[in-house]
User: Fold these one by one.
Assistant:
Number 1:
Amino acid sequence: MVAHPRRHEPCLTLHERGIPCLVWFEDAIAPYGVPTVVFDLHLLVPDIDEAARALIEKGWIDAGLLNSDYHFLMGPISQRRLHPPNYTPPNSEESSPWPPPPPSQDPPGPTTTVLLPAVDWNVPIEKLRLCSPASFVPPLDLVLDGMIDSFLDSPSDTLLRTRLTTYLSYLYGYCKALKTPAFAANLRLDHRQFHYDRLSRYTGPVPFIKEQRQIRDEIREGKRQPHLDMGLTRSEPNARVIGEPTQDELLEIDRDG
């Protein structure tokens, strides 16, 4: 389940400095059977400024603020973006020689790395200690726990919500492990009803996010317990399986990466 080591070079650098980290977004779901490509490397860390300093000391270049109005991480989202050493800006003469050289046979090297505060993505700092030089991929239950909360708390009508919807659709559409009966026990209690409903329920015009946020909060308050028999029936008009990604959702991750 480990990506090529060169892509994870910043992870190794941070690990050597005693800074734990785990990969997130595409790099966190691809090892679990999700057929996605990867883009920038997103890392969850305890402190993005401390991690950025550690990488800069090793030659990484501060990439500054995100300059795209159409990126899913636009807005008030804490992040530090760094380019790898010897980075060549796109569209420069060095990056676009003519005639173009033949495709390289070498594995791709480190890419632009985005540091994110783990707590902002609902991953406890102590869980980052799960990382090791052998793998910086978080366990599947940690991925799902973090993404469920991020999805339920994401602002409406944003690219962030669209992207998180796509990640969850991919996981529930392709990851066999989370469909096993025993998997729910690995999740936090307040996320299990979401999990059950994603696996078994059909929805029509019901405001799913609002409903699931209320269910999660009531479980946290001790007002209810998750159970399996809350699904709607297939006879409801315009129903569709929540766990099955639409074609648009499956393409979204590749369009706005």
Number 2:
Amino acid sequence: MGLTPRRCYWRPFQPPSLAKHIKALLKQLCGEPKLGSISKDGGSELLEALDKNFGYRKNFRAKYRLVQKLGIGYSGHVFSARGKKGELKDQPVAVKIISKSRLKFATHIEDLQLEVKILKSVSGHKHLLRFYDAFEDDKNVYIVMELCEGGDLSDRIYERGGSFTEEETKFIVKQMLSVVSFCHLQGIVHCDLKPENIMFTSGGDDAEVKLIDFGVSGIIKLDTGSGICELVKRSDPKFDDEPWPSVSPEAKDFVKRLLCKNEYKRMTAAEALGHPWLSDESQPVPLDFLIYKFVGIYLTSTPLRCAAQKALSKVLTEDELVYLRAQFRLLEPNQDGSVSLENFEMAVARYATDIMDDESWAPKILSMMGSLADRKMYFEEFCSAAIHIIHLEADEGWEQTVSTAFEHFEQEGNCVISYEEFCKELYISGPEALSSVSKIVSETLMASSI
């Protein structure tokens, strides 16, 4: 059990790598000598030991009194405690205690440092545990956080015999999607979303929930059942057995789209919040980092690709347009209804935390939008730029969508897109228009054949 958020720092648009953790575990299992216990040339002089001084405060015992052990995790113990003095005097808190003796490799130390950094950065979100402070002494590291006294979701599921109404489920799912989309925007991936890591703030039925355990504990589990992952990869979700026959079609579609095996076709957390099953005008839509990625790619694409995306945008469904309108409003358009690079930069700044540094996705994607510094983008073009083509491809009506988009180009019923029609779509005119479009098409065809 852990009460701190699980760690995984996300690099731009790539899944997190477990390579360093696997290597560290293999070293441990194979009995490789530990750093700090290897002598040079058979002598007694030791190699440089791991530096386990984190620079945290040393006065934990003076500020907090441990009350009760709550659980044991892979990397440490979790206690309830009370403040002895200061702002948290007599207030209940949770303390995760990590023994320095368990930090046997450099990766363990890096993970713990990053965990504390992440906790400090995202602590302000209402559905994440509030981080108070980190301490250390010669033997342990102490991470002090908010205490949730309502138990976890797995306890609630057990107490209620696994029975929740759709409305009760929505209440929990909305809160989790809100915090997950916030983390993704910061470049953080949780990697261990499960009922045990969803805590209730109190025992009431209307208690809010908080996502916990971003720490290093549990990333690699030796007791994981074999064969389960392969079975999941091969199987499709079934909705024949109870309770699915009585579940609404919207809820089933929501689950199907979250379980899509192709991660590029799967809904993002922000998109999931805009799904019809969860649609709620009172629930603000979070900023979707993928929108930035798509707009950046669009602005650096060939005119032919841009024209194709414009055609596809003409056949977006009303639900898709509602979602894009919500994302466009988050950019706070100017009085004339346009946005520029500054709007994108300001939107990111409003939601950014300290974890979003120069190595995060934001600077790289915003640099791809450089052309917007000198021009405006209106909602119609935003739809063309932000369109999720892979999502459209996954839809059962993809062929009809492409056919309709093609008809947008094709004007004369001869099933051929003329250079003149491309000129019209690309807003290119003048004596050199046809030769320019011909060159664009030739270059695109040549690039696609390489």
